[in-house]
Amino acid sequence: MSATPARRSLAAVTLLALLVLSGCTAGPTLHARRITAHQPAPSASPFTPSTSPSTSPSPTAKPAPGSLDWYLSQVPTFPEAPQPVPLPLPTTGAAPFWHRLPTDQKVAFITIDDGGLARPSEVADFVWRARIPVTMFLNSPAAEEYPEYFRQIQVAGGVVENHTINHNSLAGRSYDYQKREICGAADKLEALFGKRATLFRPPFGEHDSTTLKAAHDCGAKAVLHWTETVHEGKVRYQTPEKVVQPGDVLLMHFRPALMDDLLAALKAIHRAGLTPALLEDYVF
Ligand SMILES: [Zn+2]
Question: How many Å lie between the centroid of ligand 1 and the Cα of residue 280?
Fold first, then answer.
């Protein structure tokens, strides 16, 4: 779909880094086993899909509804993503706050929040095989508890970003409190995933000018809200147009129906004549 070669290279580099960090002796080849349900990956075993992204189910065998092959069979075919034009960033000492990215390019962005509640097992495989660009705004305790789950999605092309430690509303809180929540999570996520978060999403979207300053001081280039939410396979528009607009940001969560939510987001983006793209190709 729209994951760039650069992003794939980054995934490979990440994989190599994981191999080095874990002391794995398998060598730098991409032959690790793919994810299987109910079988958590050992910490030294990074995820590499065994199936080509272009593979589709045999035309004679109808995939069972709800299976990974079924989800893959439902993914629309998108127009090729445009070459990303990076967005200019302010130099004011505060991160900009965006509901949607200020771009006219025919792209929209999929984001997945939190991480503590549910982690459906086939998400990494779905992300890889359908080449779905996703950004994960994680609470650092969830990331710390389930690092392999999120690393598998990272290796599949997803990017981990910052959603605080404790998921409390930041609006009205002191600079010190907000900085502790934002920098504390950024430090932990960087240690776990090998990349400093460059995007921040405040819990509940609630923020003030202190949030934008603290986020900037913790390394965030932008603070992201959203324009649509997706829950249990339904897209809810929070803008009058009721159709996904260029630059829109779709929000879903690590919840039991995440596979349905990903599919619903893809279909809504496709209906709008847009292509999914990765936030980090536009903001860095
Ligand atoms: Zn949240």
Answer: 19
| pLDDT on residue 24 | 34
pLDDT, tens only, 112-123: 999 999 999 999
List of residues 6+ apart from 86 with CB closer than 8 A:
281, 282, 283, 284
pLDDT in tens, 73-96: 999 999 999 999 999 999 999 999
Tell me the CA–centroid distance for residue 113 and ligand 1, in Å: 5
| 241 CB-near residues (< 8 Å, 6+ apart) | none
pTM above 0.85, yes or no: no
Q: Report every protein residue that has its C-beta within 5 angstroms of ion ligand 1.
A: 113-114, 203
CA of 270 to the centre of ligand 1 (A): 26
Q: What distance in Å separates the CA atoms of residue 171 and residue 100, rounded to the nearest whole number?
A: 20
Question: At which residue do the structure tokens 């998108």 appear?
Answer: 78
Distance (Å) from CA 252 to ligand 1 centroid: 9
Gap between the Cα atoms of 101 and 104, Å rounded: 9
